[in-house]
Structure prediction request, 183 residues.
Amino acid sequence: MATTERIREILSWYGSDSPGTLTNLARMLSAGTLGGSGRMVILPVDQGFEHGPARSFAPNPAGYDPRYHFELAIETGCNAYAAPLGFLEADMRRLFLLEGVTIGAAGSALGWLLGFSMIYALSLVRFEINATGQEMTHLPIAWSLMHYIIASSFAVGSAAVAGYLPARRAARLNPVDIIRGAT
Prediction:
């Protein structure tokens, strides 16, 4: 749609804004059923970790689809839809911590498998040594479950710390500053 005189007038009120902001505003004013009239209908969406479709409304499986809300805005002729940026600080920490613990647990499981395989392979190596007065035919290997538990605890604990520390900083950032590249 071509830019109407009314849209040009509205854009003139925002002369101090960046060309990108003006372009986006022009797109919103030109879209939807009211496109070109200088009026807008924006579909507000506020769903996140703190309250989603399962908590706020009756079961709504479509509400879980990230494309649902903007497709609804297009179908109903809205100019745009407004969704919140960012997370609550506690949700951000929880998300990073969960990610760190998950990575630590996956690394532990892989480490257990790899470690056990290597120890088992070493236990199969046969040789003969009589030089020390003791006859040895295998490497002396300790098969202790406690070693695996200690290693896993360290891996999951360090992954949790590695997830929590950046989460503290990320939770304090303003999402708009991130989008603009200020931080």
In short: The radius of gyration is 29 Å. The chain has a mean pLDDT of 79. The first helix runs from residue 5 to 12. Helices lie at 5-12, 19-30, 53-56, 68-75, 89-123, 145-172, 175-180.
